[in-house]
Specification:
Elements: H1 10-30, H2 35-50, H3 52-60, H4 62-73, H5 88-98, E1 100-102, E2 105-107, H6 109-115, H7 119-130, H8 134-146, H9 148-171, H10 177-183, H11 197-206, H12 210-216, H13 228-243, H14 248-265, H15 271-291, H16 296-309
Antiparallel strand pairs: 1-2
Helix pairs in contact: 1-2, 2-3, 3-16, 4-9, 7-11, 7-14, 8-9, 9-13, 9-15, 9-16, 13-14, 13-15
Length: 310
């Protein structure tokens, strides 16, 4: 009978305990203690030691935990302290490239959507935006259960695309369209997050504060370029095609287009940001497929990692 409980290994116990304590201490020093940090540590350790199955699972999804920690630690040095924030130039370029002529003059697509919004589109955009993280995670669960090797490729590609996006945040800090609507072209350092009109209508319609709660916790509103909302579904669809999931890829393609539309419609991104997100995804996938997967050392790493989660 196969033993479902992983053996207690002193080396692993030291590494997991030391890593957990160091993470909590470092987080406290850098960004302040938050209860979700403790929950993350407890969840990781519980799954790591509960059984062989849960250990394989949490080791696989450790890649997504790394993504979350890196994202959280970006608060240490906000991007607006590294480079000038782009506000007016981005707005003018959007109007120049994608402006829509109306009886009220030339409008950006965001301004046009704001003036001619519809409750149905508000609700549709809200549903798409609610799923921009759940869909990639559910797809990761699916790959983990079906093909561990492809799961690792997906998870590491996802991480790489995010790291590229994070670098661009620092190279080109950018204000979202709603910022111009609310504050104009002046740079205001401690601007709080904002739901935007469409997502506010979503909350109001259902009598909830989902998006209000999410965006009120936003620590940096000057990270609109590139739109990682728009990058994630590209990565998911690419691996959906690679896995050959059939008609599900049609749903993934519709989800991707819906996210792109919603990013602009809700006032959270310019079309330029969406294009930037798409290019970010393509760049990350190209680097992963054409460079990393061609590296013998990286492939050895993948094989060792796959053995740990299989």
């Amino acid at each position: 009978m196969r033993n479902i409980f992983p053996p207690l290994n002193l080396k692993e116990l030291i590494w997991t305990t030391t890593g957990s304590v160091c993470y909590l201490i470092l987080s406290r020093l850098l960004i302040g203690f938050k209860i979700d940090q403790l929950v993350l540590v407890l969840l990781f350790n519980a799954l790591f030691y509960a059984s062989n199955t849960t250990r394989r699972f949490i080791l696989g999804f450790l890649i997504f935990i790394v993504f979350w920690i890196v994202f959280d630690y970006m608060k240490v040095i906000p991007n607006y302290l590294v480079n000038d924030v782009h506000i007016e130039d981005l707005y003018i370029r959007e109007k120049s490239l994608f402006g829509i002529e109306t009886e009220n003059g030339l409008l950006t697509p965001n301004e046009f959507a704001d003036q001619y919004s519809h409750l149905g589109l508000d609700l549709m955009s809200g549903f798409f935006y609610l799923n921009w993280i759940p869909v990639p995670l559910f797809f990761a669960f699916y790959l983990f259960s079906k093909n561990k090797a492809l799961f690792l490729q997906f998870a590491l590609s996802f991480l790489l695309v995010n790291l590229i996006g994070f670098m661009v945040y620092y190279i080109y800090p950018a204000a979202p369209p709603w910022y111009v609507k609310e504050y104009g072209f002046e740079f205001l350092l401690h601007t709080p997050g904002h739901t935007g009109t469409a997502l506010s209508h979503f909350d109001d319609f259902f009598g909830v504060e989902i998006f209000q709660g999410l965006y009120s916790k936003s620590s940096n509103v000057f990270a609109a370029m590139p739109s990682l909302h728009s990058a994630y579904p590209v990565v998911v669809l690419y691996f959906g095609l690679k896995k050959k999931v059939g008609w599900v890829n049609i749903l993934l393609a519709l989800f991707m287009i819906g996210i792109w539309f919603s990013a602009v419609y809700t006032g959270h991104h310019y079309i330029q940001d969406v294009v930037g997100g798409i290019l970010c995804a393509i760049t990350g996938l190209f680097i992963f497929e054409k460079l990393l997967l061609k590296s013998p050392g990286f492939n050895r790493f993948l094989k060792r990692y796959e053995m740990k989660i299989t």
